[in-house]
Amino acid sequence: MDISIYLIFLVTTVMLILVPGPAAITVAAQGASHNSKRAFFGVLGVACADVLFFALSATGIASLILASNLMFSVIKWFGVAYLLYLGISALFSKSGVIKLSAERKESTRKKLFSQGLVVQLANPKALMYFTALLPQFIDPSKPVLFQMLLMGASCLLADIVVYSVFSRLGDRIAKQQLQSWVTTLINKAAGITLISTGIKMASLEYGK
Q: Within 10 Å of residue 101's Cβ, how many Cβ atoms?
């Protein structure tokens, strides 16, 4: 793979990860509710989901899923339902799963990892992204396996670095001991963002 092509791929991937979405909100909330070190398990969950999406795309399975009306609909509506659940919890529940709070909790590492994994798996846009992106950067005249491994490792590293920054930001927000109305406002914004994302996902058309 030409170095210039690789850099374009890397920058494109990092920029897309930097756009705040459900996964970013979740790891930031975990950092605020626990601390950035413990929230790292949530970051790993998100990264593992993307590794799975990448592997599916690299082996062509994602294309089959996206070509199937039933499979795409199942993934889409599961994601819509889960994101709406998270958003409504953030808006109305005092103990919502993504509620930002200065109070520290002690969720298990497994729970934090699972939450990050499920949130990212519930977003079929990630699957669509890898399926659409990978073919654009593969040079068929050079070893394909090496290129796939390089891009996969780069995506994993980018996920870990960027989402760790989001969890760190959540941790710092909690340590500032913000007034209750500020944390409430953050929760409302997070809830609205998740619900909006769920609604946008509901409008996705199969095969597109």
A: 20
Distance (Å, rounded) from C-alpha 139 to C-alpha 156? Answer: 21
Contact 79, 123 (CB under 8 A): yes
Q: How far apart are CA 146 and CA 1, in angstroms?
A: 9
Integer-rounded Cα radius of gyration of the chain: 18
DSSP 8-state secondary structure symbol assigned to residue 34: S
**Better-predicted residue by pLDDT, 57 or 112:** 112
pTM above 0.90, yes or no: no
Is 105 within 8 Å of 34 (Cβ atoms)? yes
- Cα separation, 87 vs 169, in Å, equals 20
Where do runs of H (alpha helix) occur along the chain? 3-18, 22-33, 40-58, 61-67, 69-92, 109-121, 124-137, 144-175, 180-202
